[in-house]
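Predict the 3D structure for this chain.
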Amino acid sequence: MRAAIQHQTGQDKLEVVDDIEAVGFGPGKVRIRVRATGLCHSDLSAMSGVLPQPAPFVPGHEGAGEVLEVGDGVDGLSAGDRVLMCWLPACGTCPSCKRGQTHLCLAGFMNAGTPNFRRPGADPSDVFGFAGTGTFAEEVVVAANCAVPIPDDVPYEIAALIGCGVTTGLGAALNTARVEPGSSVAVIGCGGVGISAVQGARVCGAASIVAVDPVETRREAALRFGATEAVAPEALADAAQRITAGEGFDYVFEVVGKSATARTAYEATRRGGTLCVVGAGAMDDHFQVNMFELFFDEKRILPSLYGGGDVLRSYERAIALWRAGRIDLAGLITHRVRLAEINEALEQMRTGAALRTCIEM
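Done. Predicted structure below.
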């Protein structure tokens, strides 16, 4: 089958091959035919080495498709079922799961250390799947709890987005920050996840939502999705002065994953307000605050992993909001490509030309 492979960490292009096999099928596993997958910025971060990922690997973790077969012991799934892929499934038995913090379950991360694919031949080699999935492939084998059934009225491309970016952005506003009606919000970084955070803040009833991004087309897009104003990064301080009388925003979402923008977000947050860190950054990039300001300003710093809540409930909520017309998911897809065009899609994301690219398999 076909898949796009990153051979070494740091390479900026993928090789599309047609001689790869999905491996690991057996008890407790399902084989899925991928129908659509989104290109998320985390895929770029894994390729560059910002996020740790063994190589060679198949990127992609935001996917949906059709179950081809199920292994022994799998209940609730059958061949032909339509599913989205959860890259961070909950085991249900660890301390985090028992506390109700299923998004902090480490079982899913363990999947990333097991090869999902294999290239046969005279010198066969194992190939990993990013985040334990690897959706830039025509087929994947994953644990059964990674496959979440979706209703028939949800298109594959919409389900794929819900599998990561939409859940992450919406959840940051609804679950982690819990934006209050009538509040002021700034969102720094307006790709697919940032735009989803904008939509989440709108659903919560925020009175003002300022979208911040250096790319003009993304700023324009943010206005269509519910931002009340969109500014370049250098204009954020002026917006804070005009909108909050210089006090700072009630909530600021950092959706870039860099300490510099996190510091900017901290400074744009009012005393007693909330900084919500959504972007996935590097292990050697350190965010610093001094002990006096930490004590004196009493700003809450809240990281948000995968939307900060039960992901299955978050999936259901996203579908309900989409059906009700409260959020726009189809509009997030600005580009559609085939797998052979994956490197063009990567460049579109690097330059900011795309919010979300759907790779149709």
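The first helix runs from residue 41 to 48.
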